[in-house]
Fold this protein.
Amino acid sequence: MNDAQDLFPTRLERKLGMFERFDPVVHSEGAQRRDGPLSEEQLREYERKGFLSFEDFFDKDEMDAFLQELTDYEEDEDLKLSEGTILEPGLGRQEIRSIFGIHDISERFSRLTRDPRLLAMVQQLLGSDVYIHQSRINYKPGFKGKGFDWHSDFETWHSEDGMPRMRSLSCSIILTENGEFNGPLMLVPGSHNYFVPCVGRTPEDNYKASLKSQEVGVPDYVSLRQLMLDGDIEAPRGGPGSLVLFECNTMHGSNINMSCWPRSNLFFVYNSVENGLLNPFCGNRPRPEFLANRKDWSPLTPVR
Ligand code: 6CS
Ligand code: FE
């Protein structure tokens, strides 16, 4: 259990109403806030919406090499058997849903986590040095890719990984076109400003089910409805190389992919080195390293 006070009670036996956020959204101040690559206008948009999107942030041809690696992974039967590879639910051909710990598997992806352009923005937003908490590729193959229910990543990372405060963010890099019909990432603007406690105890080894279909830690419809009526829903569009930075508590999800086109996105989760994991607040055993890095919190340094 944790000695630290649990400021974000969730996975409860009865409903607790959502409450306003008390952590900053942009953690840098003064010169560190002013001198980073994001303008004051972009910082204010991130504070207001809980995400920023950048079409064609990386050149398309930069993405070709990453896409080629993806194809190789799909053919790699050993990789499909590893614990960090999650297959789509249901029987039949084993479609890959996600590959976790991609920055540990691939030198190319690892270097991308330390791209100077990315790192500078992330350090400005988190106001400190950063490390990778989690990385993954969500494949969402054509016709077979299932959806991801609405959720706050922080609710899971706090409850199941012991992440103390809201001082982390996800970089989603689009590897295949996020169009209207192939289940693009959807976000609720402004939802990062409220913590929505969820009902339901966390079973041991919950991740073995939740990464295929999340049952626990899914917010109630009354809270979701309120957040959507306040902020609507946005699905940043973009081709390979486009980027979405979203705050750890921004409500997001995506539909099933009914099109023939895959919707493969790469996710890097950066955590502040001042927000290191404690014991899981849900009281369970810590999750495996491929989901929550507990071994190496050394600050990332930029590499071209
Ligand atoms: O449990 C987790 O860490 C994962 N679950 C979801 C639905 N999003 C964040 C993360 O990949
Ligand atoms: Fe998520």
The chain has a mean pLDDT of 95. The chain has one domain: 22-272. DSSP finds ten helices and twelve strands in the chain. Residues 60-75 form the longest helix (16 residues).
